[in-house]
Automatic annotation (TrEMBL):
Its cofactor is Mg(2+). The gene is engB. This is Probable GTP-binding protein EngB. InterPro entries: G_ENGB_dom, GTP-bd, GTP-bd_ribosome_bio_YsxC, P-loop_NTPase, Small_GTP-bd. Keywords: Cell cycle, Cell division, GTP-binding, Magnesium, Metal-binding, Nucleotide-binding, Septation. GO terms for molecular function: GTP binding; metal ion binding. PANTHER family: ENGB-TYPE G DOMAIN-CONTAINING PROTEIN, MSS1/TRME-RELATED GTP-BINDING PROTEIN. GO terms for biological process: division septum assembly.
Length: 189
């Protein structure tokens, strides 16, 4: 897979649109960088031990065809109000300028926990913008079989049949093919 990474924090500097964008968003530490590394087979998305640090939009150009877009993680307790506002602005700017090129938003949620307030806010935002989204339940390897089925049922009940929910683990690689298939089906491969 040929891959180029570019980091943007200004709208006028966003790259030329290609055949669509697949967006990854979620709370800090949910496993977003690990997933992007897994999907691209590289170490391109830095796995940070200091979450919530950079509020920038990372575009990963894949095979000169489409982008994986890495939005800054949210919900990190230790950021200042100023950084929180900056975070919101940058995501808003991204959605507003590129919504038309977005194929799907992958919303990553830690599969061990029930829906958090800021995930709910993100979902409402995505719905308001009329963006198609799918839920990736991360770190599913950390759950026992019974807990895993319980959490999957909880999210299925919460979202109904209209949304694809993908249990995923960077350790066992469960869900990785499902995510890549979705990218392919939506015309990204
Ligand atoms: P980000 O802040 O969302 O980019 O999260 P990272 O990708 O940096 O991951 C945060 C932590 O969770 C790291 O220590 C990862 O090794 C760990 N992690 C990520 N995905 C998984 C997973 O599927 N299973 C397990 N057990 N740990 C994971």
């Amino acid at each position: 897979m040929e891959l180029v990474k570019t980091i943007y924090s200004k709208k006028d500097k966003f790259p030329v649109p290609l055949n669509g964008e697949f967006v990854f968003v979620g709370r800090s530490n949910v496993g977003k960088s690990t997933l992007l590394n897994t999907l691209t087979g590289t170490n391109i998305a830095k796995i940070s031990k200091k979450p919530g640090k950079t509020a920038s939009v990372n575009f990963y150009k894949i095979n000169n065809l489409f982008y994986f877009v890495d939005l800054p993680g949210y919900g990190f307790a230790k950021v200042s109000e100023k950084e929180r506002i900056r975070w919101k602005q940058i995501i808003e700017m991204y959605f507003e300028s590129r919504f038309w090129n977005i194929k799907i938003v992958f919303l990553l949620i830690d599969g061990r926990h029930e829906l958090q307030k800021n995930d709910e806010q993100m979902i409402n935002w995505l719905k308001d913008l009329d963006l198609q989204f799918s839920i990736i339940l991360t770190k599913i390897d950390k759950l026992k079989m019974s807990e895993k089925s319980k959490m999957i049922s909880y999210y299925k009940r919460l979202f109904g049949e209209n949304y694809i929910i993908i249990p995923y683990s960077a350790i066992t690689k469960e869900g990785v093919n499902e995510i890549l298939n979705l990218v392919e089906v939506l015309g990204g491969a």
